[in-house]
## 1
Amino acid sequence: MVARLKPRFRHVLWRNGSVAILCGLLTFAVVHFFHNTAFFGGEAEDSLDFLMRLQAESGDVPPGPDITLVDFDEGAFVALGRPDIIPRDAIANVLARVAQAGPKLVLLDIDIGWPDAKPREQVLADELSRLAKGPGPMILAVREKLENTSGIATPYLRPSPYDAIAAGSTRVRFIASQIIENEAGVAHYIGIMEPMCRDTTSMVLPGIHPAALAATAPEPMNAFDALDNQLQAYRRPCTANDPPLRPKPLNTMGVAGQNVSWKRNHDTERIPFRLGWQEGAVFSHSSPGLVVLPVSQFLQPNADIDDSLLRSHIVVIGSSAAAMRDMHLTPLGFMPGSLVLGNALRASLGEGFLQESSIYIDLGLTLVISFFTFGVWAILRHFMNVSVLLMREGLKLGMTAFWGILAWTFMRHGAALDFAFPQYVVISYLIYAEGLEATI
């Protein structure tokens, strides 16, 4: 077909086509090289955040397990006398009432390692011992790391009165909840595991994803034991200079018959935020699949609580009170850390975490959009004599359609395709093509 065209048109096709390929390859190479920088990588992350907001506002989110958030809110803190830490006997009462309703899983997003009065600690220890040996749900208690203690630079785990209860084959286990922010301070990632030190002894706590899979397995205690053995095989003695993990990379784990794998820095996963936060929400919420219950109802004697809001749900016990300093900026706005973990749990047991596309998919998309740009320019401008203004509008419509395809891929399949590659291809090609107008 090209041979039948006039020499001038053949020249236009070959010249523009060659430049389209070069623009695609060069742009891909540059953007891929700087993929994780604030300029290129940040723009792709912002695009995904925008899509998450649109999806959450429309309510068109993939189905997932129901989340119930039991919240120690400002009202509860006032009623408790604004304590420095949440009283351990109050936590014990909430755990007892929640477990009685038959939830699928309980996540305690309050670090019980901080000391309280001995009698209150004993009340919680007794309740945890009862739950650890009973037939109820798994209780995952979040532990927080401390930095720079005892001359060791690696994270340090504070001893607690409940260490013996959470050790061994019981229904109470300690986990880590490492929420990781990007350069702009937006919470995007959750840790897979957290190596910690206690003096010269090291241990590795599982993160939300592997812990949730193990805790909801048909035999959760056996699954958790197998997970723990897998993680502890990678620990080594803690010193001031060496990390507690062995240098050997760990890119995948087998948990309850499933493979958990990750790519980013070998230890994090990108959270698809579906549940937003509404200040002061009680018994209802703007996000589908989420119920927020104020903890004050659990602390009242003989309180009438609807068990259907807890039964078979994933229950997260946390706090949105300002004194806890646990609010995070996310793609859906500010929310307490307990709801960030709720979103992570929903991904773990539902749609899964966002998966980055491979380099081959990104390269293929880049070349497709470069040829699309070239084709629109060549056909509309040189063969149909369309003005540059109309040509630009045609490219805009084409790019809008392409973004729609990427948005559908993200919303339906959780594929985090890189939006930066095709965008920079179009910019590069238009700069060349507009300059070419003066010579053709």
## 2
Amino acid sequence: MSTRPESCRRTEDYCLPLFFLTLSVGVGVITAQLPWGEGDLTGILIFAVILVYLWGAHLFPAPWRSDRSLWLVSRNIILLAFLLRATVAIFHRLYPILPELYTLDAETYDWEGWAIADAWLTGNNQKAEFISLSAAIHEHFIAVVYFLIGHSVLSIKILSSFVGTLSIYYLFLFAVETVGKKRALLVTFLVTVWPSHVLWTSHNFRDPWVFYFLSRVIYSSLLWLKYDSQKEWLKTALFIVLTGLFRELTGLLLALTFVTVSVYEYSRKATGLLRVSVLFLSAIGAVGFFLIMKDVLFFSHIQDASPLALSQIRQNLAIGGSTSYPDITYNSWFDILFFAPSGIVYFLFAPFPWQITNAVQLASSIENFALYFLTALACFRFSFLCALVRKEILFVGLFLVCGVVASGVVEGNVGTAYRHKMQFLPYLLVLLSPAWPLFSRVKPQVLEAKSLSG
């Protein structure tokens, strides 16, 4: 079993983020009791508390502070991440600039959350119809906050910005362990200023929570595989459940990835009949898990994973929004294999310049040019990526491949794809970064050794 370096031993600190999240809401509760402390002012004070916390840089493990330049740069990037998201949240609260189509979900969550909180406050019965388990959980979280501090839309936006910032922090930790400190700083900065990530983590969507718990899953899985840590294995399983509570399909994909990697890891250490038994029982468990989970998903009426059923999922997702290939129907698995490459390209790189119809699509198209360039670099310098082929990235690699392929096949709503792509993009950038010729012309193995040594 490998020994974890001192720089990683204090990174899984649950207490400080949870404490300051609770403290922020506590400040909101006190402010809400003041005659002038209602609505947006509560959100501004919560913003100030979180800003002071991040400025103190208590997120970062003590050993890293000996490297003052790294500590200051990384602290400032995380601080910038929160400031950008909170600024967008405040500005949009004062001067709404996004088309209603892109904020409809957030407004629905807010309205339903306030209705639930109001029912609790007045003693009335609130019979809300939730489209999914994850929507119900998110709306009840909003209801709890509104029950404590009153109806303050800005407060929820600021809390979402904070949670989105925490996801970038754990992305940074994952990148340090994977590609070294310098490239970790570069990738973290790119995600910090990536317009789509800023947008979706500064509003009252489920996405900030999905991104945060997903970042914990990915980071814990890396530590589990790299250091053979059973504690990190358990934490990976825990955060998969929490991710699934905020987006069922992502949780299901993570769970299947987790089962597959766990079986592979255990079977490597087992022998003979034990290995066969583990593989058989795990396969039965994965099938049973799918059969149980499909009944709590949004598509509970889907009875199988046939091509026609996948077509139905794609058509259901496309309802209420624009779609790529709206009339496509999968009649066989060959149809899916034939369409998958095109679907993946659309999922990762749409909208294309000729598809732009509004400002959001224009911004997304511009940022896609950066993605084209970074992906092209990786293709031309593919040999540099071979240095990353090692056990600890097995989980994130399998998750990215399965997630992108599945999304390309079934994601029919272009607007929803903008948000869902942000689940995968940060980690894709991490894995592509060794091919970017920004630091050295030496061989990938030498570059990796230099990066990890700081």
## 3
Amino acid sequence: MLVWLAVSLGDVHALNSATRVTQAKTVPPRAQIEQGLRDASRAARLHPGDTAPMLVEASLLYEEGRPHAAAAVLEQVIKKEPQNRDAWHNLAIVAYQFDRRLSRVAAARFLRLDPQEGRD
């Protein structure tokens, strides 16, 4: 938390901009996705220990139709934070398009980390 207090307004703007693109209700235009990717990349460079920009980048890559690239970024997040439920959950979704075995493994790991999720 102290790291975020030390960031500049421009850094916060870059991450917020990238996050807004991923939270849009409709698929944003390609230019917005590209800008979001640049902003997420900048935020990741400025704060290499923080995985939030990487999660945003993976989401944008997936929205852009690049599930393999999104999975690669999510796997980097998981290497840094093996207990990151969001990364495992997103990897299960992304990998379903090209590797059902990886998708099942990721889903199982997510459910072990968040057992309440599977009870609905």
## 4
Amino acid sequence: MLGKVSTTPLPLLHVAIEAAWRCWRLRRELLWVLVLPVASIVTLNLWRSSRDTPWIMGVALMLADVVVLGFAAASCLRVILLGPRSVPRLGVNGRQMREWICVALFFSLYLLSMVLLTAFTSIVRVPYAELLEAGANASKTPQILALLPVLFIICRLLLVLPARAVDTPITFRVAWRMSEGNGWRLVLLTGALPWFLHLAEYTVADLFASDTDYTIIRSILYVLLLPLEVALLSASYRYLCRAPQPATEHAQQTP
């Protein structure tokens, strides 16, 4: 049963501090559930960068990325919201339907973001037709402007992920209602802050000259920064629905 929906503004600083604190407090458990995802993502990215792959192989690798990241996100969500005993030590393993539903939701949100970005870019491009002819820099303007409404929509719908991960599923309509009045705050917490994390990830990876080193470091950082992104979403979800605090001692082990 979903908790009472909060209509008050998300306290940005409080949510960010809570997310960082939970990541630090659960750092060992989160690292354990990320062992296999890190190894998988590094392997997939090295395979992708080492050879020219046909389009069908590219699609297969992309789907593999979605499954790995979906499982990793589900593991982190359960650890943060329900406690470390709610998942096996190395994370979820696909034996529970909820895990595949999380992957499906993750993939559907990704597809929706691509469709919306394409649609909004096409709309914005019309008044910028002359700028587009001016050069490469101007060509980025429609994508940048189109990204804002896309983030506003996707960041509000992201609430379906923590709800599904803790077995209190909600629809996209309910997620939209839950986030009413907090859309741009969610953009800051679950859109802008993760973007800065990935910017830091690329900055660190760029310090390595070798393509192989760059791929390995970027892949590792990409997955290791996932818990903080998940914690920001989890803390926002907890506040918006006033979910109970995680009872680590009484959480049941998932087979």
